[in-house]
């Protein structure tokens, strides 16, 4: 202790030397750790470089330039594609009340269009594939836009059929896409939409009755529609129970009003029910007032009568509606 007291400068210098030595050791260890990490990163870069050297085609400036040109071609293609395939519409601003009103209004419009085109609806009070949703007053949040799109699709598809003046609509099926849908019901397809980075493809199935000329008009309408419709399959068969002809009903009602035959509304409905061997325009049997045979109660024998033997066809069409996706923000 005496020596320390006599040599304070030496002691202070030794203390400083020890501190500096500790700092030097800490700095060395830290740099060695950083050097090790840098070495690992360098080895990784070497591995990436080696793999790039082995890539075919080699990522040279020429090949990179070719890839950039291909990207520009894809962008131009997508721009031209939207002139043929419509884009997804802007998001619908709907709530529970708005969707309910849109649903009921669309169904009412479709029934009116069917009436105006003299198209029979096989099912009474038909909901055109939305029976489960009509029973609801509230909907899941993700239901609004999806159902609004499907309503738009169904209205456009059936509008084409009504313009073609088909005889009868048996039904339309769509995909079950929301928790509000009853996936096990008769209104739904066992098919789901397909989506890729460019578009969404939504399937539908329509069943209806018509004649050959009306089927031709339906196909032409689907092919020439403003939205992109791809016909996947058409199944055509003979209809066993064709719906009553509107022409026959008109003739019967006119004859009943004129007093040529004694018949009521119930008898008209019963008489116009199709039978197994009925032709396109089956002449029902009635007994004129005063007895006797049917004779010429419904037709004027002085005018030529055209008899058509063609029977309605039962058609099932499976199709897709294609839309390009909205560009990401």
Question: What descriptors fit this protein?
Answer:
single chain; 329 residues; alpha/beta; Alpha-Beta Plaits; 2 domains; seven-stranded mixed sheet; 9 helices; 7 strands
The amount of beta strand, in percent, is 5-15%
CATH fold-level assignment of the largest domain? Alpha-Beta Plaits
How many separate helices? Answer: 9
Name of the CATH superfamily of the largest domain: Ribosomal protein S6/Translation elongation factor EF1B
Query: What oligomeric state best describes the polypeptide chains here?
Result: single chain
Largest sheet: 7 strands, mixed
Report mean pLDDT, rounded to a whole number.
76
Overall number of domains: 2
Structural class: alpha/beta
Into which percent range does the helicity of residues fall? Answer: 40-55%
Number of strands: 7
What's the Cα radius of gyration?
Answer: 39 Å
The low-pLDDT segments are 261-299
Tell me the CATH architecture of the largest domain.
2-Layer Sandwich
The secondary-structure element order is HHHHEHHEEEEHEHHE
Distance between the termini: 79 Å
Layout: helices, strands, pairs:
Elements: H1 2-6, H2 8-54, H3 61-81, H4 96-116, E1 120-121, H5 131-134, H6 143-163, E2 168-175, E3 188-189, E4 194-195, E5 199-210, H7 212-223, E6 228-238, H8 246-258, H9 265-271, E7 313-324
Helix pairs in contact: 4-6, 6-7
Can you walk through the features of this model?
By secondary structure, this protein is of the alpha/beta class. The chain folds into two domains: 2-81; 96-242 and 313-324, 2-Layer Sandwich (Alpha-Beta Plaits), CATH 3.30.70. 46% of the residues lie in helices and 15% in strands. It has nine helices and seven strands, in the order ααααβααββββαβααβ. The chain has helices at residues 2-6, 8-54, 61-81, 96-116, 131-134, 143-163, 212-223, 246-258, 265-271; strands spanning 120-121, 168-175, 188-189, 194-195, 199-210, 228-238, 313-324. Strands 1, 2, 3, 4, 5, 6 and 7 form a seven-stranded mixed beta sheet that branches. Strand 4 and strand 5 form a beta hairpin. Helix 4 (96-116) runs parallel beside helix 6 (143-163) and helix 6 crosses helix 7. It starts with a helix and ends in a 5-residue tail after the last strand. The model is unreliable at 261-299 (pLDDT under 50).
């Amino acid at each position: 202790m005496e020596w320390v007291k006599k040599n304070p400068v030496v002691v202070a210098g030794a203390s400083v030397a020890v501190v500096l030595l500790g700092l030097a050791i800490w700095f060395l260890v830290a740099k060695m750790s950083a050097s090790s990490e840098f070495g690992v990163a360098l080895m990784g870069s070497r591995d990436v470089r080696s793999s790039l050297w082995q890539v075919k085609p080699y990522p040279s400036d020429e090949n990179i330039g070719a890839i950039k040109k291909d990207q520009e071609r894809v962008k131009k293609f997508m721009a031209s594609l939207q002139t043929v395939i419509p884009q997804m519409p802007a998001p619908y601003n709907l709530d529970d009340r708005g969707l309910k009103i849109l649903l009921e209004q669309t169904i009412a419009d479709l029934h009116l269009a069917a009436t105006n085109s003299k198209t029979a609806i096989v099912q009474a009070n038909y909901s055109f594939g939305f029976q489960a949703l009509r029973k609801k007053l509230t909907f899941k949040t993700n239901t609004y836009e999806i159902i609004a799109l499907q309503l738009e699709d169904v209205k456009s598809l059936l509008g084409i059929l009504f313009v073609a003046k088909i005889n009868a609509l048996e039904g339309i099926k769509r995909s079950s896409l929301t928790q509000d849908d009853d996936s096990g019901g008769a209104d739904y397809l066992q098919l789901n939409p397909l989506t890729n980075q460019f578009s969404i493809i939504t399937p539908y199935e329509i069943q209806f009755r018509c004649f050959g000329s009306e089927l031709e008009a339906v196909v032409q309408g689907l092919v020439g529609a403003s939205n992109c419709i791809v016909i996947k399959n058409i199944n055509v068969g003979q209809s066993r129970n064709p719906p009553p002809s509107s022409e026959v009903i008109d003739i019967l009602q006119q004859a009943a009003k004129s007093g040529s035959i004694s018949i009521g509304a119930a008898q008209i409905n019963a008489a116009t029910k199709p039978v197994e061997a009925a032709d396109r325009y089956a002449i029902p049997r009635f007994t004129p007032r005063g007895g006797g045979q049917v004779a010429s109660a419904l037709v004027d024998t002085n005018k030529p009568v055209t008899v058509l033997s063609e029977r309605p066809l039962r058609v099932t069409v499976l199709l897709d509606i294609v839309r390009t996706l909205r560009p990401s923000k």
